[in-house]
Design brief:
It comes from Anaerosporobacter mobilis DSM 15930. By secondary structure, the chain is of the alpha/beta class. Helix content is 50%, strand content 13%. It has an eight-stranded mixed sheet, sandwiched between helices. α11 links the parallel β7 and β8. The longest helix is centred in the N-terminal third of the chain and has 64 residues.
């Protein structure tokens, strides 16, 4: 092999070596791209799956909370509840009670368009009178507040009972644990103000009705128009009520509370324009500058004494009282009507 041939062979080998190396690099690069695309696809699938599960959980949380009265006979529930408490069913049948206590039905429209259905009881045929607005709890309607209405009427007060959203005559389907319900209270307060001069306007709620009263109390409207707030057996937040139910459900072990609350909160914010934080009565009570009475049922397993004490401590105004009664949830007036009446009236007369 001469020198010229040797050079050509060497050149050819170098070219082949370069091509081989280039091919290997291309294969490695292609392999990396494939791995990158595969990993990216897996990551995307995982993210989509997480978002899908989160959306599903969020929907379930929101629907379970907002539509919990769906299919319930809230009118019948009130009648059954009063019967269980041994009240006279005939006396507290709504039409009879309205007829015997000068009750007149009315409607008002809240600022978000919700129509509120209520009854205005006029004591001693005097419209220009101290007036209390009574707010019932979950699962019932205005009728379950009639025994307390009778107490106020006997004390010379005018009384308004009304159906909260998704209850009684209400056409609204949402239960928002006081967030949107507070607009109904605002509308009723305005209605009463148009009928009276310098008389008192008091809001008195039980259970979720107490939460509605408390969230209303935290508004500027309440500080300017309400004279007193009474919260009987209020629970501290929508979140705590949800978690109490969640922990009793099957197949929820292993799902962190923070995650399920985040899912529900995200869904509520996106679709219903409010959040768990908006219904936190303890936190919102820091804005409550209205004279307030908290009634704590000491044997309450729903709205526990600890919850009521936390609410009381958080209330901003110094003009507040905490009254304890040895009763179960919202049964203070049922078990101790005289003591309950005295506690309420003494508070209002101060």
């Amino acid at each position: 092999m001469d020198m010229e041939t040797s050079k050509e062979v060497s050149k050819e080998l170098k070219n082949k070596s370069h091509v081989s190396r280039s091919n290997r690099l291309k294969k490695k690069s292609k392999k990396k791209k494939i791995i990158g695309i595969t990993l990216g696809s897996i990551a995307a699938i995982i993210i989509i799956a997480i978002l899908g599960f989160s959306y599903f959980f969020g929907y379930q949380v929101a629907y379970g909370l907002l539509y919990q009265n769906e299919g319930l006979d809230t009118k019948g529930n009130s009648v059954k509840q009063l019967a269980e408490w041994n009240y006279d069913e005939e006396e507290y049948e709504r039409r009879n009670f309205e007829k015997n206590n000068n009750g007149n039905e009315f409607t008002v429209t809240a600022k978000d368009g919700n129509i509120v259905y209520g009854t205005h009881f006029i004591a001693d045929n005097n419209v220009d009178n101290n007036t209390v607005i009574l707010i019932h709890g979950l699962g019932g309607d205005r009728v379950c507040m009639e025994p307390i209405a009778k107490m106020y009427i006997e004390q010379g007060w005018n009384v308004i009972t009304y159906d909260q959203r998704a209850s009684g005559e209400s056409k609204n389907e949402w239960v928002t644990f006081g967030y949107f319900e507070k607009y109904d209270v605002e509308a009723i307060v305005d209605y009463v103000e148009d009928l009276i001069s310098d008389k008192k306007i008091v809001i008195h709620g039980q259970s979720m009705g107490a939460v509605t009263a408390g969230l209303y109390a935290a508004t500027k409207h309440a500080s300017e128009h309400a004279d007193a707030i009474i919260m009987d057996s209020a629970f501290d937040s929508m979140e705590s009520m949800f978690l109490g139910v969640w922990h009793e459900m099957e197949d929820t072990e292993g799902i962190p509370d923070d995650y399920i609350i985040w899912c529900g909160d995200w869904y509520l914010r996106w679709n219903y324009k409010f959040s768990f934080a908006d219904t936190d009565l303890v936190n919102m009570s820091k804005k409550n500058h209205v004279k307030s009475l908290v009634i704590e049922s000491m044997r309450d397993n729903v709205a526990t004494p600890e919850m009521n004490e936390a609410i009381y401590e958080a209330i901003a105004t110094g003009d507040k009282e905490l009254w304890r009664v040895d009763a179960e949830h919202v049964e203070g007036f049922v078990d101790f009507p005289e003591e309950y009446t005295n506690a309420v009236m003494e508070f209002l007369e101060k």
